[in-house]
Amino acid sequence: MLRMLEVVGTSPEGFSEAVRSAVEEIVRSGHAAHFFQVVEQRGSVREGRIREFQVVLKVAVESNDMPV
Amino acid sequence: MLRMLEVVGTSPEGFSEAVRSAVEEIVRSGHAAHFFQVVEQRGSVREGRIREFQVVLKVAVESNDMPV
Amino acid sequence: MLRMLEVVGTSPEGFSEAVRSAVEEIVRSGHAAHFFQVVEQRGSVREGRIREFQVVLKVAVESNDMPV
Amino acid sequence: MLRMLEVVGTSPEGFSEAVRSAVEEIVRSGHAAHFFQVVEQRGSVREGRIREFQVVLKVAVESNDMPV
Amino acid sequence: MLRMLEVVGTSPEGFSEAVRSAVEEIVRSGHAAHFFQVVEQRGSVREGRIREFQVVLKVAVESNDMPV
Amino acid sequence: MLRMLEVVGTSPEGFSEAVRSAVEEIVRSGHAAHFFQVVEQRGSVREGRIREFQVVLKVAVESNDMPV
Amino acid sequence: MLRMLEVVGTSPEGFSEAVRSAVEEIVRSGHAAHFFQVVEQRGSVREGRIREFQVVLKVAVESNDMPV
Amino acid sequence: MLRMLEVVGTSPEGFSEAVRSAVEEIVRSGHAAHFFQVVEQRGSVREGRIREFQVVLKVAVESNDMPV
Amino acid sequence: MLRMLEVVGTSPEGFSEAVRSAVEEIVRSGHAAHFFQVVEQRGSVREGRIREFQVVLKVAVESNDMPV
Amino acid sequence: MLRMLEVVGTSPEGFSEAVRSAVEEIVRSGHAAHFFQVVEQRGSVREGRIREFQVVLKVAVESNDMPV
Amino acid sequence: MLRMLEVVGTSPEGFSEAVRSAVEEIVRSGHAAHFFQVVEQRGSVREGRIREFQVVLKVAVESNDMPV
Amino acid sequence: MLRMLEVVGTSPEGFSEAVRSAVEEIVRSGHAAHFFQVVEQRGSVREGRIREFQVVLKVAVESNDMPV
């Protein structure tokens, strides 16, 4: 059984980089990730410039390596 | 990276109180919460009266204080 | 089998009160209500003030007490 | 013809109060408002407490009092 | 407060069996489950036959038996 | 003109059986049913097992055999 | 309290005529209708021509003239 | 850059005429319109007849002729 | 088995005519069409007038008369 | 590149069988199918019994074996 | 109170660049922007190449610097 | 009449590149493409890294160059 984790990835570069950042952090914390789905794309603006792109995404990980 | 936790908050008073109840319980369990989003609003009825308002909501918490 | 009745509840106070008002009216008309779901939240404005909050909601009632 | 303005209302009290706050500010700025629709319900949390409830809503106003 | 866990259940038999499989695995891992909601229904095909039906579902479990 | 009745069908077996159960009950109550649409798929769990699959569905029936 | 009736209106002419047909039939059956919302627009084709436009719509009627 | 204006067009005739009415009013107020999208289709009923068809639509206009 | 073809129908007259135009073109190309569903309603504006109404629709055709 | 074909599968047995039927027919017509997604679940009723379950689904097939 | 402006950003480079372009143009026109949300992602093709990526987005700006 | 083809574009680089890849392949196969719409954004992960970004998109092509 796979578990879907919902997280918010961010990047000053763009949406694809925000996704990459979130997936890599999930992997670094020890999860075996299989696939992801974008849920929402947002971003924040500060002093007239985009501070960060934000992507809410669901990442499917193996559930046997964590409490369900 | 933020993690989105999906929970069901309840209250006999109303939807806003149901949200408040859920956010406070998440905070009491040690999470640093940043924001929330309402997903669904429901409720149960018993003996002709609303027993509780139920709000399904996603709460964004810092992920470094928990297994992702 | 439960039947879902879709109704519009209103209140000058707020959304939760509009829901309560609709559920109570359904119960007064003789239905055994079990649960409800919010479909849409709207409202009307007159002379610069909110005249009423309006909630479209579905209420699950027992179907044996009415023509389906 | 009515124009739909999309705004974010906020309140420390709850969702209904956030809506009321936004509608009143639109009226104070000189618009004739007719009705509103809730688009999204969110909120922010600071130091373990809900700082504000946020409601994204569309408010229908008469368009002859503004550039469309 | 209930917690909504999102998981992917699979079965070579059909969608209902995929749901049953996921719910049983969540229960075996020690959770007290109350209800579930189907989010998405998919499946994979290999060598011209359906290899597995996949159901993404949210399962409501009691949150006091786990870190929120 | 057809009327859409929204009901909740249940079955311990699966989603298709829950639909069949609801359609048959509507027919037994005297309606001429033409078609149906699934709105939502849920279920309840008791003591670690699925107690029932629940399908919210809309059933199109002829309206001349009932008050609209 | 208003009740939302969901019906299917049809017309060989077009979508607006299908709506008009359904609203008029609801009124002829004795209901006091206030407003309507389009849910879905479909149609059937026979022998290479559109046989009818079909509109699923919800019509708000006063509930005191019928069992809720 | 194009700006999306959301408006409500109305007509006693039908949905297409309601759209045409709104687009023409936007153009008369001096905007250069490029395209439109239907958001919602509704209507009001008075004394048993459709008083007006209402279409909520977004119209894309050039933003250099107005404060963004 | 039926196949769903997604096409864009257009007409200077209105949405219903745009649908009719698309269905007739599909039939002329040799398909046996059964029913259709509206997916999206849009349109283009040129020199202050609606140039065409555009309807994205799915048309169900028999699949044995074409490569699936 | 994969192509998504949208089809309607049917079965007198249930939703899972309707999916299986559609996937097998696509494969028999020579396509290499990879995965599928359920879009909509419906059905028809005749003489008080479900005549068929209908599932609208998208099936991903390799595009090099057909005109895109 | 924040106001949500809906605009269409474009770029020959990609979606993130289209967003950046729209946000910068809104800021140049004098608005204090806070955050944005992606509504829709589209694009146009000319002579076999992508001419531009188009992103419909909502940008939250302070409303005190403009007529609401 | 335009036909909407739904395809899955992929790229190890990002979402915009995945779209570009799909549009170019459709053009290479001889279609005259006009515009595209993003339907869904997903991706696969292998050995802790994003293997590919996947975009499900609809591409509008002229239908006279193919069986509808």
Overview of the molecule:
The structure is a homododecamer of 68-residue chains. Chain A is of the alpha+beta class. Chain A has one domain (2-60): 2-Layer Sandwich (Dodecin subunit-like). Helices cover 21% and strands 56% of the residues of chain A. Chain A has one helix and three strands. Chain A has one helix at residues 15-28, and strands at 2-11, 33-46, 49-62. A three-stranded antiparallel beta sheet of chain A has the order 1-3-2, covered by helices on one side. The longest helix of chain A has 14 residues, at 15-28. Chain A is elongated and about 45 Å long. The mean pLDDT of chain A is 94. At the A-K interface, strand 2 and strand 3 of A face helix 1 and strand 2 of K. Strand 2 (33-46) of chain A pairs antiparallel with strand 2 (33-46) of chain L, so a sheet runs across the interface.
User: For the record, what CATH class of chain A applies?
Assistant: Alpha Beta
CATH-level-2 architecture of chain A = 2-Layer Sandwich
Estimated radius of gyration of chain A: 13 Å
* CATH superfamily heading of chain A: Flavin-binding protein dodecin
Could you state the oligomeric state of the chains shown?
homododecamer
What is the residue-mean pLDDT of chain A, rounded to a whole number?
94
Q: What's the β-strand tally of chain A?
A: 3
Our estimate of the beta-strand percent of chain A is over 45%
How much helix is in the residues of chain A?
10-25%
> Biggest sheet of chain A, open or closed, and with what strands and sense?
3 strands, antiparallel
Helix and strand element order of chain A? EHEE
- Which pair of chains forms the biggest interface, and how many residues does each contribute? A-K, 14 and 16 residues
Quickly give the structural class of chain A.
Answer: alpha+beta
What is the domain total for the residues of chain A? 1
